[in-house]
Design a protein that fits this description.
Elements: E1 3-8, E2 17-23, E3 26-32, H1 45-48, E4 64-65, E5 74-75, H2 78-96, E6 101-105, H3 111-125, E7 130-132, H4 139-149, H5 160-163, E8 166-170, H6 174-177, H7 179-191, E9 196-200, E10 213-215, H8 222-235, H9 241-247, E11 248-249, H10 251-258, H11 263-270, H12 274-286, E12 290-294, H13 296-299, H14 304-318, E13 327-330, H15 337-342, E14 349-350, E15 354-355, H16 359-369, H17 382-391, E16 396-400, H18 404-407, H19 411-420, E17 423-428, E18 441-444, E19 453-456, E20 461-465, H20 478-492, H21 507-517, H22 530-536, E21 539-540, E22 567-568, E23 587-592, E24 618-621, H23 623-628, E25 636-640, E26 645-652, E27 660-664, E28 697-703
Parallel strand pairs: 6-7, 6-16, 8-9, 8-12, 9-10, 11-22, 12-13, 16-17, 17-18, 23-27, 24-26
Antiparallel strand pairs: 1-2, 2-3, 4-5, 4-18, 14-15, 19-20, 20-21, 23-28, 24-27, 25-26, 25-28
The protein binds iron/sulfur cluster (SF4).
Family: Belongs to the prokaryotic molybdopterin-containing oxidoreductase family. NasA/NapA/NarB subfamily.
GO cellular component, one term: membrane
Enzyme class: oxidoreductase
């Protein structure tokens, strides 16, 4: 009998619970945890293969340092590594100021790791230059919720899928990206013959294949579509005037906006049929409970925030929120994107959903941390952070648990930035990422199965996880690395701190400080502790002191966390994608995920069986578009634009309309002769969320006659 330790899957934001099986301090198996509310024992192919990734050959096991760029890194001890890092950061800060350094972290870190990174940058150093790869997946959802509902809080729970009558899946493909959520959708379909499923996606995805209605809209036309749906709801008297009057504000202005979006106009903008738009609106408006699930297709857009707001409007206008089976439910891409948001681990946020732009919030955080102040100057969000690195405004960057040399758009710029930096630190578990080539200092971190802390999944559910096995080599927990560095840096700064800013001896001490910072906030977790999470199991926030359980759904009382207590309609206008196709670059390139791979494949790329379904990145295009270019299935195509190029085999896909192509996002330089799809994407960002438009680029596709 193997020893079993409860944990969670480290891939997607569903946050499935699992049991790690160990033998002689080695991970030998995983099983779904039947007691975890996210998955009730189920796992997808990725989660069920996690034990196969627990191997040392891809791991970074010792600190490595190079003092000159042209030299290879050499193994060093932790003392030397962290002293060197502290000296370099202190020198750069002394010479160029606190905003000359930056931290780029990850939605795969635990909440406690995130908390200390945030405190290191904003508290100790005095810069808000701390951002995260969650900027690439969730920041438009954050801004969309805040603009409309007043707080970054998904109001729904997974159980809503079982009790909804109309499921609108928008810009998401849970069949491959959130498979255990998709199992719930399949169960709901089997149990409720009246359930209507509408999928909005420019491509006929695996999720669209089970839809009653698939709206294959033109990329980037989401706002026009949602405005058009609201236009139909108004015209057919399917809005809830009582709810609008009692619980919202701003509807009159939006009504004027959507008057310009009748179905005929929207059909033209979105390349859809009028009848499809009317049908979708009727199903949504006439259902007893309508639920939306949405993700990167909405978020990764140069108008992602308003994509989110326009969808949320449908729920507010029909009163489809705060009830079982109803509400706008943003799915998170990464396992702890939510936790990072909770501790304010982005350049524009502060702890416990506080806003950097709010002086009272800054004062509250300064008080909590025992500091005179925290800086007001906004930090640089991901794309701008690397642009500033390239310009030389930022001199040193500390990257943790993420791979910007693959995952950020416009890789030409990002790689030039990493090359130009004075000092690059990479805190990582894996040695096989594209970013490793640019690191002057590599610090080995522990990873899945080796860490203690908390994670929050898409439905606001917090799980406490503990290590199943010992750390390999000299790897250290992420929070420990940060705290050790912070103490060394603190002693070297021009004005060393007198108080103890990093007194932690365990992740629990960090959790307890974070917990206190949430008191009275929308995400109040003052009733939670590691002990309670262990004895009662995972819990949803809010969970204030004195509560006996977390809250399944938010806004049941129709009161929203805005100054007026009312949810807000935002006047949202249709705007096209940042980059349009033209005669030279005539193909709209879309990107997405495959079922068996995760992000840049540093983990899934080590498991042979995860290549059984898809063993290389294939460019999907309509058969007629392939024929027009003299391409047949399996031929190699050249895909390019002014930013970059790549060569990939093609695959016919009649589920794509002509003029569109789709490429999986997972392959980077470690696996192909290019930076992958992000060699081609552009750095245009949403003005509110600063999330880049990763979902669309204009490219030319031609036959490649490779030698
Ligand atoms: Fe892991 Fe997501 Fe699969 Fe669950 S659905 S096992 S969290 S990858």
């Amino acid at each position: 009998m193997h020893k079993q330790v409860k944990s969670t899957c480290c891939y997607c934001g569903v946050g499935c619970g699992l049991l790690i099986e160990t033998d002689k301090d080695r991970i030998v198996g995983v099983r779904g945890d039947p007691e975890h509310p996210a998955n009730l024992g189920r796992l997808c192919t990725k989660g069920a293969s996690l034990h196969l990734t627990a191997r040392p050959d891809y791991r970074l096991l010792h600190p490595e340092l190079r003092r000159q760029r042209q030299l290879p890194r050499q193994r060093v001890g932790w003392e030397q590594a962290l002293d060197h890092a502290a000296e370099r950061f202190a020198e750069i800060i002394a010479a160029h100021g606190p905003d000359s350094v930056a931290f780029y972290i990850s939605g795969q870190l635990l909440t406690e790791d995130y908390y200390v990174f945030n405190k290191l940058a904003k508290g100790l150093i005095g810069t808000n230059n701390v951002d995260t790869n969650s900027r690439l997946c969730m920041s438009s959802a954050v801004a969309g919720y805040k603009q409309t509902l007043g707080a970054d809080a998904p109001p729904c729970c997974y159980e809503d899928i079982a009790v909804t009558d109309c499921l609108l899946i928008a810009g998401a493909n849970p069949a491959v990206a959130h498979p255990i959520v998709f199992r719930r959708i399949e169960d709901a379909r089997a149990a409720n013959p009246g359930l209507r499923i509408i999928v909005i996606d420019p491509r006929r995805s695996e999720s669209a294949a089970i839809a009653d209605l698939h709206l294959a809209l033109k990329p980037g036309t989401d706002i026009a579509l949602y405005n058009g749906l609201l236009h139909v709801l108004l015209g057919e008297d399917l809005v809830d005037r009582e709810y609008i009057a009692a619980h919202t504000e701003g509807f009159a202005a939006l009504e004027q906006t959507v008057a310009a979006f009748p179905p005929a106009v929207v059909a033209e903008i979105c390349a859809l049929a009028e009848a499809e738009i009317i049908q979708a609106a009727r199903w949504f408006g006439r259902s007893a409970a309508a639920l939306s699930l949405y993700c990167q297709g909405l978020n990764q857009s140069s108008h992602g925030t308003h994509n989110n707001a326009a969808l949320i409007h449908l729920h507010l206008a029909t009163g489809q929120i705060g009830r079982p089976g109803a509400g706008p439910f943003s799915l998170t891409g990464q396992p702890n994107a939510m936790g990072g948001r909770e501790v304010g681990g982005l350049a524009n946020l502060l702890s416990a959903h506080r806003d950097l732009a709010n002086p009272e919030h800054r004062a509250e955080v300064a008080r909590l941390w025992g500091l005179p102040s925290v800086p007001a100057q906004p930090g640089k969000a991901a794309v701008e952070l690397f642009a500033a690195l390239k310009r030389g405004e930022i001199k040193a960057v500390w990257i943790a648990c993420t791979n910007p040399a693959q995952s950020l758009p416009d890789q030409g710029t990002v790689r030039a930035a990493l090359q130009a930096a004075d000092f690059v630190v990479l805190q990582e578990a894996f040695a096989n990422t594209d970013t490793a080539a640019y690191a002057d200092l590599m610090l080995p971190a522990t990873t899945w199965g080796e860490k203690e802390g908390t994670v929050t999944n898409s439905e606001r559910c917090i799980t406490h996880i503990t290590p199943a096995v010992s750390r390999p080599g000299e790897a250290r927990a992420d929070w420990e690395i940060v705290v050790d560095f912070a103490r060394r840096l603190g002693a070297r700064l021009a004005q060393p701190l007198t108080g103890q800013l990093f007194p932690y001896a365990s992740p629990e001490a960090i959790f307890n400080e974070h917990r206190e910072s949430t008191r009275g906030r929308d995400l109040d977790i003052t009733g939670l502790s590691y002990a309670l999470l262990d004895s009662a199991g995972p819990q949803q926030w809010p969970f204030p002191e004195g509560a006996s359980s977390g809250r399944r759904r938010l806004y049941a009382d129709g009161v929203f966390p805005t100054p007026s207590g009312r949810a807000r309609f935002v006047a949202v206008e249709h705007r096209p994608t940042a980059e349009s196709t033209d005669d030279t670059h005539s193909i709209s390139l879309l990107s997405g995920r495959l079922r068996d791979q995760w992000h840049g494949m540093s983990r899934t790329g080590t498991v042979a069986r995860l290549f059984n379904l898809d063993d290389e990145p294939l460019l999907s295009m309509h058969p007629a578009d392939l024929r027009q270019r003299g391409l047949v299935s399996g031929d190699v195509a050249h895909v390019g634009n002014a930013r970059g190029q790549l060569h990939v085999r093609v695959k016919p896909d009649a589920g794509l309309l002509r003029g569109r192509a789709w490429l999986p996002m997972h392959w980077g330089s470690q696996f192909m002769n290019s930076a992958g799809v992000n060699a081609l994407t552009l750095s245009a960002c949403d003005p509110f969320s600063q999330q880049p438009e990763l979902k669309h680029a204009a490219v030319a596709v031609a036959r490649a006659d490779l030698p």
